[in-house]
Amino acid sequence: MDLTSTTAAGIRLRKTIQAGAEGVSLDADMIRLLLAIEGEKSLYRIAAEVDLDAASFKRALKKLLDQGLVEVVRTGHPLLGKAFFDRLQIELARAVGPIAALLLEEHMARIPGAEGGIAPERAAELVESLAREIPAERKRIAFQKAILPLIHPQTAEPGDRR
Predict the structure, then answer these.
(1) What contacts 63, CB < 8 A, 6 or more positions away?
(2) Is the pLDDT of residue 13 over 60?
(3) Measured between alpha carbons, how far is 153 from 162 in angstroms, rounded to an integer?
(4) C-alpha span between 150 and 160 (Å, rounded)
C-alpha cells in the first residue's frame, strides 16, 4: 500500500482476524497501532493518534496487514478535488477578501497529501478551521452554508443549484 499517495486520505482501516491465523507476532509499535484502530477510522486520524514516526508507522501497518490483523476498507466517498478548492477559495474571498488565497494555502499546508484531493471529513475540518478566520459571524455562517453542500451533497436544500 502506498501511504504517500494522495489516495491515502480516503483509506480506512478496521481490525480483522483471518481464518487460520496462527503464530501472530506483535511488537510494541504494532500493538500501539492496533489499539488505535477502532471502527473504520481514517488512516490520517489513526496516524495522528499514535506517537510513531512515519517510518515506524508504515512498518507496523505493513506487518499488521501482512498478518491479516487489519484490513483496508473501501469507502464510497470520492476525494474532493480542484472544483471544491476553487469554490472554497471563492466563498472564502467573499467572506475575507483578497487574503483568501493566502489563508487557504496556509491551512492546506497543515493537511498532508491534500494537493491531489481531500476526503470529505478532512474537508469539513478544513472548512471549520477556515471559518475561525472569519471575524464577522454573519459572513462565517454564510461561508459554512455555501460550502457544506459541496462536502455533503445530500445536505443541499431543494432548488440550490450553486
Answers:
(1) 27, 30
(2) yes
(3) 11
(4) 11
pLDDT digits (tens, 9 = 90+) for 54-88: 899 999 999 988 888 888 766 656 678 888 999 99
User: Phi, psi at residue 97, to the nearest 5°?
Assistant: 85, -155
> Looking up cell 481464518, which residue turns up?
19
- Residue whose C-alpha is closest to residue 103's, from 89, 91, 118: 89
As a whole number of angstroms, the distance between CA 145 and CA 156 comes to: 9
For residue 111, what are the contacts with CB-CB under 8 A and spacing of at least 6?
118, 122, 125, 126
CB 111 within 8 A of CB 91: no
Helix (H) / strand (E) containing 43: helix 43-49
Whole-structure pTM value: 0.52
Q: Where are the domains of the chain?
A: 6-73, 82-155
In whole angstroms, how far apart are CA 13 and each of 27, 89, 91, 116, 140?
19, 31, 33, 21, 34
Alpha helix stretches (DSSP H) within the chain: 28-36, 43-49, 54-66, 82-96, 100-108, 120-131, 137-151
Q: How far apart are CA 54 and CA 127, in angstroms?
A: 26
- Find cell 443549484 and name the residue: 161
Decide: helix, strand or coil at residue 53.
Answer: coil
